[in-house]
Write a structure and sequence with these properties.
The mean pLDDT is 87. The protein has 217 residues and is mostly helical. It is 81% helix and 0% strand. It folds into two domains: 58 residues, Orthogonal Bundle (Arc Repressor Mutant, subunit A); 143 residues, Tetracycline Repressor, domain 2, CATH 1.10.357. The chain is elongated and about 60 Å long.
Length: 217
């Protein structure tokens, strides 16, 4: 019985490693040639395996891309939330949120490109663009950001503003750095991160809190 369980665990580990290999090859393919041109054959070539082996783990391109999308969202979410979770105050949590979101873009460029390729090019069986589905879902990142802003307002640290508008503004500014080549050519990631946190902090802080900080300098 123990031997059978050991063999089962071994096969499970090998299968998981193979799936991870395919996922990484798919990321590279999307980064190299985009979603439209990406095929199982091209992904298999990048993974240095047969197309049939991919089909053993994923039924078709859509199935693979669905798994990849989940994988990409989970990893980026985990990366950001882990760093936010280390902070205590709403102000520090907000700064950590912005810095972590931008840092992930800088250190995981291929993954971000793959994510955008899927969201903006993939379609459901009903031909609904994935980006419309994403917009309709409340993801963990937005839930966390909204909670940080609400907590800041309840504690009197942040001023009065529409939380949904502020969430959209912050996420838009974060995403803009990856999507806008003109800004990335002019401003490096470290500078953009520092300036954005400074701007957002001044925007959300309670004016009384900000004045007391300045008086204490």
């Amino acid at each position: 019985m123990k031997e059978a369980n050991r063999e089962k665990g071994k096969h499970s580990f090998i299968a998981e490693a193979r799936r991870e290999q395919i996922i990484e090859a798919a990321i590279k393919t999307l980064d190299d040639i985009g979603y439209v041109k990406a095929s199982l054959a091209q992904i298999a070539k990048n993974a240095d395996i047969s197309t049939g082996l991919i089909s053993y783990h994923f039924s078709d391109k859509s199935d693979l891309m669905n798994h990849l999308l989940t994988n990409l969202l989970e990893r980026s979410t985990t990366y950001i939330l882990e760093r936010v979770g280390k902070e205590v105050t709403p102000q520090k949590k907000l700064n950590a949120f912005i810095l972590a979101s931008l840092a992930y873009q800088g250190t995981h460029r291929e993954r971000n490109i793959a994510l955008l390729e899927i969201i903006f090019n993939a379609r459901t069986p009903d031909n609904v663009p994935y980006y419309k589905l994403i917009d309709d879902q409340e993801d963990l990142i937005m839930i966390e950001l909204r909670q940080i802003l609400y907590d800041g307002q309840e504690q009197g640290v942040f001023g009065e503003f529409n939380v949904d508008v502020m969430c959209n503004l912050i996420q838009g500014a974060i995403g803009e750095y990856m999507l806008n080549n003109s800004i990335t050519k002019k401003v490096d990631l470290e500078t953009y991160s520092r300036e954005l946190t400074k701007i957002i902090e001044k925007t959300v802080l309670n004016s009384k809190e900000e004045n007391s900080k300045q008086d204490g300098r």
